[in-house]
């Protein structure tokens, strides 16, 4: 039996996986990979949220310490049996002149996603090593895309790109949609219409400039005016962002849990949306998680 599963995180509201300090004009930036600058959600945040959810879940609470490990005071007793990778960016929602928004990805993003698929699913992806190489001035889309405006052009934020239909984009949309929205044909269709593959450099630009930046203030209680020095800027991944990672079940000798049951616990915890990252009190970070079942 396979001991790993794909795990998706779909942001239902803006997501702020913070770094704790700002280095530029943004006071509270989001976490980014050191080498690539691509945003991500740390696996430690995911594990902490799921552990808290497990404590209060009727079907899972009796197995919290077995799945996630003992509390801090007894952390040396045994390791947890569930290991979670970082949730890495897969689809970035970007404002589009036509079709409202596009789910944007790139060859590099798909290549490392394909690498995770190969490690988890026996069959892999039908076009696992397909060479998608849009130029700097074009994007690859499904033939029935909703993103075209003024002929064959696609306008993403301030970028004017020439669209080119590619059946491999359709294959990716079908593969991802079947797992991300397993019982919702409407959202599977929406993904197919909005999936857009741009060049790696274009994606890096959008990942840097296409995030949501919000100005926040603090008011004085008595005058209801802005408190001196209490203006700051927060960065978030926009709603509809899709991230991916891997969940690994690794039972230890002191824990008598079957591998499949460990994933069943995760399924319990992903039945309802969970809150990740900061700013929970203002509605940030509400996410839907999907663990992909084993397939023959």
Molecular structure report:
The protein has 296 residues and is α+β, with helices and mostly antiparallel strands. It is 26% helix and 28% strand. The chain is built from seven helices and 15 strands. Strands 1, 2, 3, 4, 5, 6, 7, 8, 9, 10, 13, 14 and 15 form a 13-stranded mixed β-sheet that branches. It has a two-stranded antiparallel ribbon with strand order 11-12. The longest helix is centred in the N-terminal third of the chain and has 14 residues. The protein is globular.
Mean pLDDT: 87
Q: Give the end-to-end Cα distance, rounded to a whole number of Å.
A: 11 Å
Strand content: 25-35%
Characterize the main sheet: 13 strands, mixed
- Provide the structure class: alpha+beta
Radius of gyration in whole Å, from Cα? 21 Å
Q: Number of helical segments? A: 7
Helix content: 25-40%
Number of strands: 15
List low-pLDDT spans. Answer: none
Helix-strand string: EEHHEEEHEEEEHHEHEEEHEE
- Describe the global form: globular
Quick synopsis:
The chain is of the alpha+beta class and 296 residues long. The protein has 7 helices and 15 strands. The mean pLDDT is 87.
